[in-house]
Design brief:
Oligomer: homodimer
Strand content of chain A: 15-25%
Number of helices of chain A: 6
Largest sheet of chain A: 6 strands, parallel
Strand order of the largest sheet of chain A: 3-2-4-5-1-6
Number of strands of chain A: 6
Shape of chain A: globular
Largest interface: A-B, 50 and 50 residues
Radius of gyration of chain A: 15 Å
Order of helices and strands of chain A: EHEHEHEHHEHE
Distance between the termini of chain A: 28 Å
Structural class of chain A: alpha/beta
Chain lengths: 168, 168
């Protein structure tokens, strides 16, 4: 089945990570592919050391925006997609997280026309978890689970910067 | 700081679990207290085996509703609160998850008048993460982070039952 965590609120990536932990706790194997996140993150540091889960990050260290896209961003995004293709072909995971793929779609680094048919080809029994704000409407229509994380309150509204161990 | 994950959508407990994994990945220590969940769950099976995190579940195996509350439910909920009191006193954790506490509040198993002053006493530098639908307004006001998980789509709407490794 296809799961989508979208919206502007905190908790999308961590919800996907928590689902991976739930799957691992049931003896399943999980794959986590992150787009646009070349930076270190607490959860990835730990997951990389855990048995039963494979993690791949594709992206530069810098924060990427629409007007600062580089050739490397496209190349990295495509490598992420290739990793997904292989994983679907090999059918060795019960859970596959595509973290921040919605943002990669929004930035045009991945085309919905490439991604959605690929999701459709995924064998039954595989859970695909897509995260990132602004999930495209076609994805929402194809998905089985869609949760919108709505930000009601966040300390950055008061000027507090992202904190290690909490935001990353 | 105080974090709240509420709303009717999927991802509240898993987001809290993901935050715990992020904290652990940064070398922090975490405590997870679950109310109303005496049942086995994939994530708890795994977390119980992991170093750096302590997990406690308080509740009966059965699903609890407002009109089926028993003395045991009150006793279990109070044990959870006592575990929280001790943890705050000993100050040994950087992250404390109070899973489903909002539901315990709604059912009257825990009183907001007991809980909220306790949260206020928590030392700076401790992240408190409260989950469950229908977070009370006083909690939302006291919190620093509030995310509402809104259900846009869920397969139970089509009659699909909760699945092992995905819903629990």
């Amino acid at each position: 089945m296809i799961h989508v965590y979208t919206g502007n609120g905190k908790g999308k990536t961590t919800a996907a990570v928590g689902l991976a932990i739930r799957a691992l706790g049931r003896g399943q194997k999980a794959l986590i592919i992150q787009w646009l996140k070349g930076r270190a993150a607490g959860e990835m540091e730990l997951l990389k050391k855990m048995p039963g889960v494979d993690c791949h990050q594709f992206g530069r260290e810098q924060f990427v925006q629409k007007d600062s896209l580089q050739k490397e961003d496209h190349q990295e995004a495509q490598k992420g997609l290739e990793t997904l293709r292989k994983a679907i072909r090999r059918a060795q995971y019960q859970l596959i997280v595509l973290d921040e793929i919605n943002v990669a779609l929004e930035l045009g680094l991945v085309e919905a026309g490439e991604l959605l048919p690929l999701l459709g080809k995924c064998p039954t029994g595989v859970e695909l978890v897509l995260t990132g704000r602004n999930a495209p409407q076609e994805l929402v229509e194809q998905a089985d689970y869609v949760t919108e994380m709505r930000e009601i309150k966040h300390p950055y509204q008061k000027g507090v910067k992202a904190r290690k161990g909490v935001e990353y």
